[in-house]
């Protein structure tokens, strides 16, 4: 199994509006290809410790499934928006 975790910090300008849109767009990709085992999208919650505004915690059956997800046109379509609102991005992929 391949785990794919991505965390984003958004720019200050229109942060809440952009955060809601980013959550919506990411969730729309939750089942776009076979091999997605887990796909959690969450925004930072007031009162809980966090260093990021948004997280994607996902798992795939294998590297090929992750590659198919990343190359899918629906996933590619959200990248311009994400790049326009993101100040910083962290990513980690690991196998178990």
Automatic annotation (TrEMBL):
**SUPFAM superfamilies on file:** Dimeric alpha+beta barrel
Q: Where is each Stress-response A/B barrel domain found?
A: 2-94
| PROSITE patterns listed in its UniProt record | S_R_A_B_BARREL
InterPro entries, per database record: Dabb (IPR013097), Dimeric_a/b-barrel (IPR011008)
Provide the coiled-coil residue spans: none
Q: Which Pfam families would you find in this protein's record?
A: Dabb
Q: Which domain of life is it from?
A: Bacteria
Kindly give the Gene3D superfamilies that the UniProt entry links to this protein: 3.30.70.100
Q: What is this protein called?
A: Stress responsive protein
Origin species = Hydrogenophaga crassostreae
């Amino acid at each position: 199994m391949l785990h794919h975790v991505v965390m984003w910090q958004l720019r200050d300008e229109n942060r809440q509006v952009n955060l809601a849109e980013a959550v919506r767009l990411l969730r729309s990709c939750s089942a776009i290809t076979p091999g997605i085992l887990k796909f959690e999208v969450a925004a930072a919650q007031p009162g809980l410790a966090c260093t990021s505004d948004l997280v994607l915690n996902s798992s795939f059956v294998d590297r090929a499934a992750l590659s198919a997800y990343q190359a899918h046109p629906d996933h590619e379509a959200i990248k311009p928006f994400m790049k326009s609102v993101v100040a910083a991005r962290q990513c980690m992929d690991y196998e178990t």
